[in-house]
Protein: tRNA N6-adenosine threonylcarbamoyltransferase
Organism: Magnetospirillum fulvum MGU-K5
Amino acid sequence: MLVLGIETSCDETAAALVTDSRTVLAERVLSQLDDHRPYGGVVPEIAARAHLHHVDRLIAETMAEAGCAFSDLDAVAATGGPGLIGGVIVGVMTGKAIALAADKPFLAINHLEGHALTARLTSGLDFPYLLLLVSGGHCQLLAVEGVGRYCRLGTTIDDAAGEAFDKVAKMAGLGYPGGPALERAAAGGDPTRFALPRPMKGRPDCNFSFSGLKNAVRLLIESLPQPLSAQDAADVSAGFQAAVAEAIADRVTRAAAQFRARWPEGRHLVVSGGVAANTLLRQTLARVGEESGLELLAPPLRLCTDNAAMIAWAGIERFRLGLIDDLDFAPRPRWPLDPTAPAAVGAGVKA
Ligand code: KG4
Ligand code: ZN
C-alpha cells in the first residue's frame, strides 16, 4: 500500500510517500522559519501563501524521487486540521485535487493523530500506550487505545510548552525560534540561582499550565539590570527549563499512574512534538518512565516535529480500517482527538 501525505497546518510545508511496510520512500519538509523570523512568530497569512507557493513543487519532487506516479498511489492523505486555517485549506484542496484527478480515495487526517501514531511507523509499537504531545501549539497527555480512539488524561489550560519556551526566549532576547536558543543558553546557566514556580505540581489532575511560570520569568527579567547580561540570560533560561521539566515530570508521573491502572497491558510512554528535542526533558521523561514502569520511546526528531510522513502513515492506518473521507470534507481549525473530554478551564484554552 502506498500513500501520499501532505502537511500544511502550521509553518512547515511537507510531502511524503509512505508504504504500509513502514518505509518512507521519499519526503520533503520546507520550513518557513525565515519568512516568519522578522515578526518573532508565525504569521498565518504569510504561512498560507508560502504553502500555496511551494506545495505543488514539493509533492512533484517527492513523487519523482520515489519514481512514482499518482496512478501508483492507493490513497492521498492531507492534514485536515487542527491548525492555521489558511494553510489547512491549501493542503486539503491540493490533496482532494490529486485524489479526484487520479481517482484515488481521499483521507483527511487529524494532525494530532499524525503525531500520535508516529511511534507505530518508527517502531511498530502496539496499542495501548501513553502519549505526551509537546509542541508549539499543543501540550496533552493521551492514552492511545487505537486508531481514532484516544482518551485525554490532561491538557494545558493556557499556553503550550513550546509556546512558553518561545515567549520566554523572546523576553530574554534569545531570538526565534525560542526553544533551541533557550536550550543553548541554558547550557551555560545555573538552574538554581533563581527560584521559579513548578506550575500545577501536586494537583490531582494531569493538566498543564505555563502562563504563571512565564509571568514569573517576566517579573524576574524586569528586576534584573537591562539589557540582560549573557550570564543572567543563561541563568534565567536554565531556571525556566528546569521548572518546565520538573512540572512536566510531575504531570506525566500522575498520568502514568492512571494509565497503568486503566490500561495495565500498556508498556510505553511515547513523546512527540518539537519540545521533545529538549535534552533535559528527554532525560527527565526517561527517569519518570523508569519510575512508573513505562519505557520511554521518542521517535527520531525529524519525525517528532511537523512532517508529512506522519500524515501519510496515519492515512495508511485509517485506510486499512476503511476510514476514508468524502471530497466535501471541510477543513477544521479545531479538532480534538478525544471529543468526549471536558473543556479545560483556563485562559487561552486550546484543546
Ligand atoms: O512540533 P513543532 O515543530 O511544531 C508545532 O508546534 O506543531 O514544535 C515547535 C516547538 C516550538 O515552540 C519550539 O520552540 C519548540 O518546539 N522546540 C523546543 C526545542 N526545539 C524546538 N523547545 C525546547 N527545547 C528545544 N530544544
Ligand atoms: Zn505538530
Notes: The mean pLDDT is 95.
